[in-house]
Amino acid sequence: MESPAPDRLAVAVASGVAVVAGTFLLTGFTPRWVVVALAQTVILLLPDALIASGIQGLGSTAQPLLVAGSGLLAVALFAAIALLATRFGRGADRERAETVFLVAAVQTLAAFLLTITPGAAVLGGALGGATVGLAGARATDPVSGPDRRGLLRSAGVATVAVAAAGAGPLARAVRAATTPADTRGDADPDPLVERLLAVAEERSFELAGAEPLVSESFYVVDKNPADPRVDADEWTLSVTGAVDEAVEVNLDDLRSRTAQHRFETLRCVGDPVNGRKMDTALWTGVPVSSLLAEAGVDDEGCCVMLRAADDYYEEFPLSALEDGLLAWGMNGRPLPRGHGAPVRALIPGHWGEINVKWLTEIEVLTEEATGYWEQKGWHGTGPASTVAKIHHVETREDGAVTVGGHAYAGTRGVSAVEVSTDGGNTWATAEVTERLPGATPADADPESTEAVGGAAVDAWRGWRHEYVADGEHEVVVRAVERDGTVQPSAETDPFPSGASGWVRRSVDP
Ligand SMILES: Nc1nc2c(c(=O)[nH]1)N[C@H]1C(S)=C(S)[C@@H](COP(=O)(O)O)O[C@H]1N2
Ligand SMILES: [Mo]
Questions:
Q1: Which residues of the chain form CATH 3.90.420.10?
Q2: Is the pLDDT of residue 183 over 50?
């Protein structure tokens, strides 16, 4: 009466798939899904040095691989539980019921231990057990006797049923995870934001291969296999530590303060010198200083620890935070989940990593501490280094070549971009875009000229240069800061404190 091993294996795998799909129905692609929880466990177990280069360096490549691997691991784990449990319950009906219950109970327990999410654990376990029950019932049907094909069919049907139920949410999650957030435009446009975005568009050079001044696709880097989903209605931000009085605000409190729009560039410390982890957006929020003033920072306060809903934490000087923005809007839309909804910090001129997403707490410290990435060997809490990138090369039939890209120098600002077409022997001054507008109060009159006045302190500029080619040229580019400092030529890798050096590209028309 005993079904041969391959069939039991098939049932067990189907049961494992049922748990993985069943839990997904309730959690979606969030840290509470068993697969993502397993991926996070794997990250915790891997050596820091590997994580250090893995995520900030590879980021978008490493994470989907990790999630896929964890998916297989999760199926294997729950299949193994089903396999072990079924060994104890072969034969009579009553025993089979006990087997189903045993499978469901152990799978539920395992899913719960992994995710601390009771609802999803119970649903997953129930589906896992039901799959075994369904298949087992067919296999030992007293009329037809042992029926291997029936058993396989049941397992197949159960798998297909669960997969079908999960297909919708899964497709949505995959789409959300793989489509870069379109953060431009707005369903309910604010005329001031529209005007600022229009100005950015007018000032952009149109260069194939390079982003306009407001990025169409903004890079994403964080430590999470799946981003936290923070309920905006329940979200609060507290200011704690060395302050006169701890302050706690919710989103309505924040939004009731005088907001402003700021063009700001972010760059990841893991960005290679000519990489793509540097982008610019128009952010809407309130200056952090308004909240700090309310809490009253102690004189001994030197630094801050920012904490987030994904258990991320970064420490840096209080003085850097004082210029920061608590942003809930990006290019006129609510801040997307992947960029830290409902509220993130924006710290002018500093590496991306202290621009904490899903922000929940600002603790004022009286002595320095170590942040998440610094614990893994990075030094990314300071000012971003100056860079000029070549993302556009276009050759025309008449021999003219146009090269272009962006230059960024944090709050030091870019005053000029210089281009060499002979490997760095001689230099010409490139054409650069007009600076983006400065911080604009959200209640400014969109019609007034002041609304687009000033210049952004922390935004990149576009550059382009045309030359006539007579064969191969080595194009080199470097930025000049506002005080005349020329970007240093010494080359370093991104790890541990950011890439530096001049970008070179040999161009053969
Ligand atoms: N909570 C949280 N905030 C975070 C991170 C993170 O892992 N968790 N990653 C940081 C890093 S390394 C960078 S470069 C920026 C990237 O912001 P973006 O994903 O919006 O481009 O977010 C920072 N903020
Ligand atoms: Mo980063």
A1: 191-376
A2: no
Residue nearest to atom 19 of ligand 1 (CA): 220
Cβ < 5 A residues, ion ligand 2? 221, 268, 352-353
Do β-strands 400-408 and 461-468 pair in parallel, antiparallel, or remain unpaired?
antiparallel
| CATH fold for domain 191-376 | Sulfite Oxidase; Chain A, domain 2 (3.90.420)
Is the CB of residue 11 less than 8 Å from the CB of residue 82? yes
How far apart (Å, rounded) are the C-alpha atoms in residues 253 and 203?
35
Tell if the pTM clears 0.70, that is, is over it: yes
Q: How far is the CA of 350 from the centre of ligand 1 (A)?
A: 12
Listed in order, the ranges of the chain carrying CATH 2.60.40.650 are 387-507
How many angstroms separate the Cα of 232 from the Cα of each of 229, 340, 355, 374, 447?
9, 11, 19, 29, 32
Residue burial 378-392, b: 16+ Cβ < 10 Å; e: rest: bebbbbbbbbbbbbb
| pLDDT tens track for 100-141 | 999 999 999 999 999 999 999 999 999 999 998 888 666 554
Q: Which of 507, 509, 487, 499 is nearest to 423 (CA)?
A: 507
Nearest CA owner, ligand 1 atom 10: 353
State yes or no: pLDDT of 184 exceeds 90: no
Range from 119-123, 170-174, 473-477 carrying the lowest mean pLDDT: 170-174
Maximal CA-CA distance, the chain: 91
Centroid of ligand 2 to alpha carbon of 221 (angstroms): 6
End-to-end CA distance of the chain: 75
CATH fold of the domain at 387-507? Immunoglobulin-like (2.60.40)
Q: Which of 474, 462, 350 shows the shortest CA–CA distance to 423?
A: 474
Spatial separation of the C-alpha atoms in residues 301 and 317, rounded to whole Å: 9
- CB neighbours of residue 141 within 10 Å: 13
Pocket of ligand 1 (CB under 6 A): 56, 218-223, 266, 268, 308, 310, 312, 339, 352-353, 355-358
- What is the percent of the chain with per-residue pLDDT over 90, rounded to a whole number? 73
Atom of ligand 1 nearest to the CA of 373: 12
**Residue 314 CA: which ligand is closest?**
1
Find residue 313's DSSP bridge partners.
307
Residue 142 pLDDT more than 50?
A: no
Closest ligand 1 atom to Cα of 380? 12
- Ligand 2 centroid – CA 381 distance (Å): 10
- Atom 9 (ligand 1): residue with closest C-alpha? 222
